[in-house]
Structures are given as structure tokens and as C-alpha cells.
Amino acid sequence: MTGFRVNFEMASDARYLPVVRGAVGALTAAIGWDETECRAIVLALDEAIANIIRHAYHGRSDGLIELQCRQSADGLEISMLDSGEPPDPSRICAREVGCDRPGGLGTHIIRDVMDSVSYQRTESGNRFLASKRLRKQP
Amino acid sequence: MTIAIRDVGAAKIVEVDGDVDLGTSSTLRKTLFAALPEASILALNLKAIRYIDSSGIATLIEVLNDSRRLNKQFVLFGLSTAVAEVFRLTHVVRIFRIVETEQEALGDGPARPAGGSV
CA dihedral defined by A8, A87, B20, A6, rounded to 10 degrees? Predict the structure, then answer.
């Protein structure tokens, strides 16, 4: 085997966000991103989990979130599954950027940081997929 | 996350240490909303914040909007690199008054113009 894969099964409780940030921050550094990029990727993942807690589970702390972060041939792949309310596509990145309205910033961060992002409704639940490529310096 | 508040004349200085995320931003929100009506200037020191997410940024925007309603000044200072990156990612740099030092936040020095780079 080459590379690294980490699986989390966590309750939809914000207390566990620092645990995920610590582990995934270390993984992104090991893959090869610099400090700034590592922080951005960790933030994007944190925002995706926070959205599940807030919107899929409406703040309930007893929902299940299954998270897998996998080192791919050219970077990182993230997959998350929850069984809460499906995301409303009309609310994803619906907020105007640069304005003084609170809320709705998380999905912009995810889209800005990650190279690909998708939300799927499956028989198992809501699937969030995202990936980020490691661009080698010339 | 820990929060400390001290008075400097008619201003209040709020020092935050730690991570501001979905689990802690509500505490920061309550603290800032409680302090705002009691001060002419509410200055928030972000230097010791190791991490902030969009819920933390949303909290700051809410306080900013309330400060306008109450005709108070809400000033941010001491942005760490990590916090500045999140401000850049969320495109909110221009909406806040951001300065380098506490002295500047209290009006004793030059403020960085709105929209200045962080």
C-alpha cells in the first residue's frame, strides 16, 4: 500500500471539529501542501462538516457523520456521508460575497479552496465529495 | 477558547485566545453583544486566535451591523496570518475597520484604510 487513508465516524457535535482539524491538518502537511494551503483545506473540510451539523442535522448532536480522507495519486479526496436533511441546492453559494450579511460563507470557502465539490443524494444518505490536487512547484 | 475583557476609558478591549468555530462562536457572540452597548469603542484583539471559521466571521459581521445601529465603533486589531487568510477567503476585509495595534484601535494612531490588504 502507498499513501494514507483516514476514516472518522463522528457524532454531529461541534466538540469534535478540532479533532478532525488536527488529523487532517497533519495529513495535508504530509501530502505536501504548504502551511497556508493546509489551513485552507482544513477550513474547507471544517465548513463542510459544520454545514452538516447545522443544516442536515439542525444542530442535533446525535447524528452520524462518516468521513473519509484519502491520499490520491495527485492529492486528497474527501468523502462524507450523513443521514440528515438533504442540502438545498438553491442555498449553496447563494450569498453575495463581500457584503455585510452574516451567514452563507461556508459554501463559498469550500468552492474556492477545493478543486472539485459535489453533493449527491444516495440511498445511504447525503454524500459530499471534494478533491484537491497537489500542484508541484516547477 | 478563552475571552477576557478590560476597560480602557470608554472603550472595551476584548482578547480572544484559541479556536473560534461552530462550537465556540456563540460564546464570543454573546460576549461581544453584551459588551457593545456599554462601550464607545469595542476593540477585538485577534492576535491569539489560532483558528476562525465562517461562523466566527458571521459573528463579527453581526456585531459590526449592531455597532452601526448603536452608533458605536467596532474595531479589529492584531490579525494573525491564519485569521487574515480567512478574512481574505471570505472577502470581508473591506467591511471592517482593521488596524495593527490596540493603540490605533483606540484612536491614537493611524487606521489602515478600509480595503487595505491583510
Answer: 20
The predicted model scores a pTM of 0.90
Q: Is residue A67 part of a domain?
A: yes
Interface contact flag, A36 B95, Cβ < 8 Å: no
Q: Output phi, psi for A118, to 5 deg.
A: -145, 150
Number of cross-chain residue pairs from A and B with Cβ atoms under 8 Å apart:
65
Three cell numbers at B63? 456585531
For residue range B73-84, list pLDDT tens digits in order: 999 999 999 999
Q: Render pLDDT for A51-78 as a digit per residue (tens, 0 to 9).
A: 999 999 999 999 999 999 999 999 999 9
Domain with B59, as residue range(s), is: 2-105
Q: How many CB atoms lie within 10 A of CB B102?
A: 19
The answer to whether B97 and B114 have CB atoms below 8 angstroms apart is: yes
Q: Is residue B69 part of a domain?
A: yes
Q: Of the candidates A72, A50, A59, which has an alpha carbon nearest to the alpha carbon of residue A128? A: A50
| φ/ψ (deg, to 5) at B53 | -110, -170
C-beta of residue A134 within 8 angstroms of C-beta of residue A128: no
Q: Give a yes or no: residue A72 inside a domain.
A: yes
CATH code at position A70? 3.30.565.10
Contact at CB, B58 and A102, closer than 8 angstroms: yes
Task: Tell me the chain B residues in contact with residue A113 when contact means C-beta distances shorter than 8 Å.
Answer: 89
